[in-house]
Design a protein that fits this description.
Blueprint (H helix, E strand, L loop, with lengths): L2 H13 L21 E8 L1 H4 L3 E6 L3 E4 L5 E7 L2 E8 L3 E4 L3 E5 L9 E5 L5 E4 L9 E7 L7 E2 L9 E4 L7 E9 L12 E4 L2
């Protein structure tokens, strides 16, 4: 191959970033500088942060687990926009996710506060029907006076039921019915309400 053709091949390879030449006779020096960065932070308190999973999305994706002190990091990242989202069963995070822009420097202090989720429920009880019944149904609504939707999957054979599907900040309205052995359902009981803090 002629010298001019060989220089052309090297030139193409150098421009494509395939070769890094330095100190070659008649050539120039070229190297690629691909900097990588880190996103890191802490989840506190440690009781909820330790063992939490953090998911990364955006310019790259991945996941990591916070260490025993609630610290985490994503390494070998390039410049770009990322979103960090923590999760840990039984806990809520503030904020629920954070956007991070990396532009020439690592991002530290991408921190989250965690709190344990408190289960909310409403315990309901009623007086037995004077008729012989097969069981009871419980209906719930979010407006005073209904409409109501049945919340028990099967007939309730006892005189109580716990609604575990309530959420904070809502008021729920309940009525109960009895069902006889023929499947005939009574009219609604008196309505009761529960405000969930």
């Amino acid at each position: 191959m002629a010298a001019s053709a060989l220089r052309w091949v090297f030139l193409v390879l150098i421009l494509a970033g395939v070769l890094s030449l330095s100190g070659c006779a008649g050539g120039s020096s070229y190297s690629t500088n691909t900097s990588t960065y880190t996103i890191s932070g802490t989840i506190s308190p440690v009781s909820g942060g330790s063992g939490a999973t953090l998911n990364l999305s955006g310019a790259a994706s991945g996941s990591t687990t916070a260490d025993g002190s609630g610290n985490y990091s994503f390494t070998d990242l390039t410049s770009g926009l990322y979103v960090v989202t923590p999760s840990h069963s039984g806990y809520t995070f503030n904020p629920s996710s954070q956007s991070v822009t990396i532009s020439g420097d690592s991002a530290t202090g991408v921190n989250f506060a965690v709190s344990q989720q408190v289960s909310k429920s409403v315990a309901l009880s009623w007086v037995a029907s004077v008729s012989v019944v097969s069981g009871y149904n419980v209906y719930r609504g979010t407006s005073n006076g209904g409409p109501y939707v049945k919340i028990n999957p099967t007939l309730i054979p006892t005189l109580n039921y716990t609604d575990t599907t309530v959420t904070s900040g809502n008021t729920y309205y309940y009525v109960c019915t009895s069902v006889d052995s023929s499947g005939v359902e009574s009219i609604d009981s008196n309505q009761v309400s529960a405000a969930i803090p």
